[in-house]
Amino acid sequence: MTDPARRLPAPGAVTEAGFLTRFQSVRAAMPALADGLSPEDLAAQAMPDASPGKWHLAHSSWFFEAMILAADEGYQPVDLRLQTLFNSYYESLGRRVERHERGLMTRPSLDEVMAYRAEIDRRMEARITAGFETPLERYLFVLGLHHDQQHQELFLMDLLALMARSPLDPAAYPEEPRPAGLLQLARGGATRFEGGLVEIGHGADDFAFDNEGPRHKVWLEPFHLDHDLVTNGQWIEFIADGGYSRPELWLADGWATVKAEGWTAPLYWREQDSVWTTMSLTGRHPVDPDAPVRHVSAWEAEAFAAWARKRLPTEAEWESAVATAPAVFSNLFNEVWQHTSSSYAPYPGFKPTEGTASEYNGKFMASQRVMRGGSFATPPGHARRTYRNFFYPHQRWAFLGLRLASDAPIMSKPRIESVETARFRAELIAGLSRPQKAVSPKWFYDAAGSQLFEDITRLPEYYPTRQEAALLREMAADLAARFGDDAVMVEFGSGASEKTRILLDAAPTLGAYIPIDISPDALTAAAAAIAAAYPQLEVAPMVGDFLNLAPLPELGRGRRIGFFPGSTIGNLEPDQAIAFLANARERLGPNALFILGVDLVKDEATLVAAYDDAQGVTAAFNKNLLIRANRELGADFDLDAFVHEARWNAVDSRIEMHLRAERDMAVRLGAETFRFSAGETIHTESSRKFTEHSVSTMAEAAGWRVVEFRSSAAPSVAVAVLAAG
Ligand code: SAH
Ligand code: AVI
Predict the structure, then answer these.
(1) Does the Cβ of 387 fall within 6 Å of ligand 2?
(2) pLDDT-based confidence at 417, cuts 50/70/90?
(3) 9 falls in which pLDDT band (50, 70, 90)?
(4) How many angstroms separate the first and last alpha carbons of the chain?
(5) Is 467 in the pocket of ligand 2 (CB under 6 A)?
(6) How far apart are CA 599 and CA 238, in angstroms?
(7) What is the distance between the alpha carbons of residues 9 and 240, in angstroms, rounded to a whole number?
(8) How many C-beta atoms surround the C-beta of residue 335 within 10 A?
């Protein structure tokens, strides 16, 4: 049997390039799932909601014929009878076999269906080669691919429902097909989201179903969303606590269903001698308490949430949280679709796709619920964070589970100080207490500071950004050749992620990008811009201090590439820089690559001018630190009494920035008072300048090997490529 779990290339944006190979790979998936199943397995229907495998194999082909091929003038159907048999629900396309009778179709035989598939594939390949003329034609083609993928998942849901009807508990497969990838470990906890006026819905130009748009604004009160899915173990506690027999936990219609259906546990669960077992695509097994619960209806999810004293998230909460901080959650898209409390309704301004495909989604927008995410059976490249799946609230044969939310208290004034502000306060107090007053340059980067840095990069005197970007452009193709497929790029101090684009353009097979920055405003804007410009790329921003790295999310499967441009390494103390590089090597793993940008030693005049520009932008950047301290910490620095200074320190090979007090004064910071005499400075930044030798000494001290060192034209900067081990 071919392995149904093998990963197929993800379908991408709506462009014609690669249509043929995308078509072939998408179409190969369902026959791979059918391989090894008998004609009887594929013909029977488990229940009215489910369809036989044979029907899915035929209907997903019918869709291409009805929506695309039949639109061509003079088109001759492959077989007129099949057009009726395999219509699903399109009223405009005439009569059909009703869903609950699909299992009665002994004819056409499986062989005839496979021959129909082959003929549709042949005609579609010719049609793709001839080219599509209008955007609607291209859209309908990609819709056909996504429709096929939806039926790949339905095929597995329906097959499980069928296997579960047998007292023999047969295994459909020796191993569970998991096209969406492996289950991730639980992380614990929940993240608070502030909400406010947020935007949800699909707004980019890549493919989405019509029901995902238009993008629109929604107001959210602050909420928490759990990092993990609810587990079987938690569900067992719910059952043991009378979950299915306490009407106060259930919505009225849910309670009516519990009584009418006699539910006592999730679908497929059975209890024997106090041991719960459940049915899966690999047969019946004991319920794993650590695994996420599957096969629970919206009614059950609501009751569980009430029992847990939490609630289901709305679909807007789910989407907004996932857009803001995808990396904090486990199993968003690869285990179960997650219930929301939202009814499936049109978004404001919803317009169905033109023509026959208008019946695809819109007409189901009543009495159903929205589920978000994706399941283990969802083909790769199919789901996305704006995706709206939908089922009736009593249905539970789909791969459905839940992640809980709760209301977050609105922060009352005076505001609780953020951890970041508390750190800034503590570091500034410690730094101003030293004989040479000093503070880490990382505190420059509030929203205004990040913007001022971007302004610096465009100054005529500040050469490093221009020179490094040019050098990266020269090196990009060679660098990308080292990445391999599905690599993960982790960028430290990513700022506006401008240089990143040079590498992303050269490395289209890169799987994921993790920008890390201490400045939440810069990071959020940059990550959103990258995600919009590179829709195939998984973008998982992390706000934080790269000197104190949180564990990296498990994304991609390929090589991990560290990217640390801009000579930001020069802003670290020498021992800090080595510790940082050693830590990054450990986090990035054994086969990692590290692309390090450094500024090189050169004549003093060029260096000093780059840090003391004629327009005074660098001075404003430096002084912004005092503005930030006054605003965030309530300090009382007199902004007019400090001046910007840039000095070359030849001994330590670094440019230093200072803020010099012009007069004797006292500055208050909370309960503390700091005295300055005229001429005294706060050392705010060192920007070390390197040589090839000092870079390799530093890299080797951190366990890296320099595999390439390339310098630019004057004023010179360099890019070093480091390999682990
Ligand atoms: N990489 C970009 C930006 C460099 S500016 C470029 O080459 O142009 C330095 C960036 O590093 C800023 O965005 C700043 O917010 C971030 N940064 C500085 N210290 C940091 C720290 N300790 N942890 C995380 N980010 C930091
Ligand atoms: C981010 N960092 C590498 C810059 C530098 O050149 O040291 C910050 C900067 N300071 C003044 N101008 C730019």
Answers:
(1) no
(2) low
(3) very low
(4) 40
(5) no
(6) 60
(7) 44
(8) 26
Q: pLDDT, tens digit, for every residue of 488-530?
A: 999 999 999 999 999 999 999 999 999 999 999 899 999 999 9
- For residue 714, the Cα-to-chain-centroid distance in whole angstroms is 40
Residue 370 confidence (pLDDT) above 50: yes
Phi, psi of 403 (to 5 degrees): -135, 130
Ligand 1 mean position, distance from CA 470 (Å): 20
Write out the two tokens for 6. Answer: 């093998």
CA gap 656, 716 in Å, rounded: 19
For residues 285 and 277, the answer to whether their CB atoms sit within 8 Å is yes
Specify which residues 339 forms β-bridges with.
371
Angle, helices 520-533 vs 447-457, to 10°: value is: 60
Q: How many residues in total does the chain contain?
A: 725
Which segments of 357-500 are extended strands (E)? 369-373, 389-391, 400-401, 405-407, 437-438, 488-492
Contact (Cβ atoms closer than 8 angstroms) between residue 310 and residue 238 = no
d(CA 375, CA 396): 13
> Which ligand is nearest to the Cα of residue 493, counting in written order?
1
Count Cβ atoms below 10 Å from residue 436 Cβ, excluding itself.
10
Would you state the structure tokens that stand for residue 666, as one six-digit string?
């006292």
SS3 assignment, position 74: coil
**CA 362 – CA 91 distance, rounded (Å):** 13
Can you tell me the distance from the alpha carbon of 616 to that of 702, in angstroms, rounded to the nearest whole number? 37
Strand order through the sheet with 283-286: 270-272, 275-280, 283-286
Q: Looking at the CA of 580, which ligand is closest? A: 1
Contacts of 34 (CB under 8 A, 6+ apart): 42, 53, 57, 155
Structure letter (DSSP) for residue 293: P
Segment 157-169, tens digit of pLDDT: 999 999 999 999 9
Instruction: Provide φ and ψ at 542, rounded to 5°.
Output: -130, 120
Q: Are 356 and 67 in contact (CB under 8 A)?
A: yes
Q: Give pTM, 2 decimals.
A: 0.58
Nearest residue (by CA) to ligand 1, atom 23, is 545
Q: Is 567 in the pocket of ligand 2 (CB under 6 A)?
A: yes
How many CA within 13 A on the CB side of residue 270?
A: 13
Q: Contact, 495 vs 522, CB < 8 A?
A: yes
- Which helix (H) or strand (E) segment is 723 a member of? strand 717-724
pLDDT higher than threshold 60 for residue 12: no
Task: Find out whether 633 and 418 touch, Cβ atoms under 8 Å.
Answer: no
Three-state DSSP state, 92: helix
Alpha carbon of 541 to ligand 1 centroid (Å): 13
The DSSP letter of residue 241 is: T
Please work out whether the CB of residue 493 comes within 6 Å of at least one atom of ligand 1.
yes
Interatomic CA distance for residues 179 and 173, integer angstroms: 14
Separation of alpha carbons 68 and 144, rounded Å: 9
Q: Contact 311/411 with Cβ under 8 angstroms?
A: no
Phi-psi region of 521 (alpha: psi -120 to 50; beta: other; left: phi over 0): alpha
Atom of ligand 1 nearest to the CA of 493: 11
User: 339: buried, middle or exposed (CB in 10 Å: 19+, 13-18, 0-12)?
Assistant: buried
Of 546, 685, 686, 689, the one to substitute when testing ligand 2's pocket (max ligand atoms within 8 A of C-beta) is 685
Mutate to test the pocket of ligand 1, among 420, 568, 587 (most ligand atoms within 8 A of CB): 568
Measured in angstroms, how far is the CA atom of residue 484 from the centroid of ligand 1? 27
Nearest alpha carbon, ligand 2 atom 7? 687
